[in-house]
What we know:
The chain is an alpha+beta fold. It contains one helix and four strands, in the order αββββ.
Amino acid sequence: MPAIVLVLALAALTPRAHAQYVGREQDIVGLRLGQRVLVDDGTCPAGEVKEVSGAKMSSTGVVAARKCVPRLGPKKMR
């Protein structure tokens, strides 16, 4: 049982580890449903970065959701 919990915990962290980093939200092109993009534009508190994700579909396309999430690793220089 503990091994299953460990695997699920690692799986939950994996998408952010492979997420795309951009410097501005305007640089996000063609956001897909479920896709996560980390935006390092300085709008979140220290130690956090903005995560923009394709949250749901609407008649006009994918609706983006934004939230601040903990930064994993050092700040990316662009």
